[in-house]
Design brief:
alpha/beta; 2 domains; seven-stranded mixed beta sheet; 7 strands; 34% helix; 13% strand
């Protein structure tokens, strides 16, 4: 029998993402935060996804958000009662028939905790852990035939502890950042601008994130800088993105994308863009 961790151990346990997410930053989180401000007020992450960066830094005050309502509901359910989510989850059989049945159910026709369990189950049993929906918003990834447990109860407990008191919203990034103030910090990890392979995959909701949204995001970043808000953004290493942020600091970050079916295309270089100088973290200042 596996020994149970004490409550204090669970409180101190470093949470990990409980889902797989295309473009997730679990492997890069430690590298990225080396370029983050050492001091800030409220932490904002409006493209939450799997939450890798948030789980790594665990700020004292945060507002997390994503436009994917089902994803956000899953975080909210774990925040409210992770045990119920876990109990619902482990009762679901890992078979193709059960997978197809769960996939066919409208997630908003069931209660919050069942909805969260369905989200995690589909993520853990679908092909390569993708989250993709059709134009009507229906999850449409095929069964993956993976024999693995859906969740680690200790990690779900640690996740729940880490998001207690955190405001988690299902809103567009522009609305999520409307109340930022001078001295706050925003980490942005939007669906990357297309340049082939995994970056073309941007249907996380029934609304695709397209070129116009990248222009809108750049405008929001400009407004954040005007207000004295620190921000850092991960995005694709493309001429388009470089041109949008030509006045900001741009750092090339080596990365690997496991979801890409082409193993030769998994090693890439992406960009970390900031509105502050990062050469000396002890003297961070906003760009003019």
């Amino acid at each position: 029998m596996r020994p149970q961790k004490s409550n204090q151990t669970l409180i101190n346990m470093h949470p990990k993402p409980f889902i797989k997410w295309a473009g997730g930053k679990q492997a890069l989180a430690q590298k990225l935060i080396d370029y983050f401000p050492e001091k800030f007020n409220v932490y904002y992450e409006p493209f939450l996804g799997g939450g890798s960066v948030f789980f790594y830094i665990r700020p004292k005050s945060a507002l997390l958000s994503d436009y994917n309502e089902w994803l956000v509901n899953t975080f909210q359910a774990i925040q409210k009662n992770w045990v119920t989510v876990y109990q619902n989850l482990v009762e679901i059989e890992n078979t193709k028939e059960t997978f197809l049945h769960v996939r066919s159910i409208d997630p908003f026709s069931v209660d919050l905790f069942t909805r969260a369990a369905y989200f995690i189950y589909l993520n853990k049993t679908c092909f390569r852990g993708l989250f993709r929906v059709n134009k009507k918003g229906g999850f449409n990834v095929p069964y993956g035939s993976y024999q693995r447990r859906y969740a680690d109860p200790d990690n779900l407990h640690a996740v729940a502890n880490s998001i207690q008191g955190v405001d988690i919203q299902a809103v567009d990034f522009e609305m999520a950042l409307g109340n930022t103030k001078k001295g706050d910090f925003v980490y942005l990890d939007p669906p990357y601008y297309k340049f082939g392979g995994y970056s073309d995959f941007n249907r996380y909701t029934d609304q695709q994130f397209n070129e116009g949204d990248h222009y809108r995001l750049a405008s929001v970043c400009y407004e954040l800088s005007r207000k004295g808000v620190y921000w850092a953004q991960s995005n694709s290493n493309t001429p388009f993105i470089r041109s949008l942020y030509a006045e900001d600091s741009i750092i090339e970050i080596p990365a690997r994308r496991e979801i890409n079916l082409n193993s030769g295309a998994r090693n890439i270089t992406e960009l970390l863009i900031t509105n502050y100088e990062v050469a000396n973290k002890m003297q961070i200042s906003l760009s003019e």
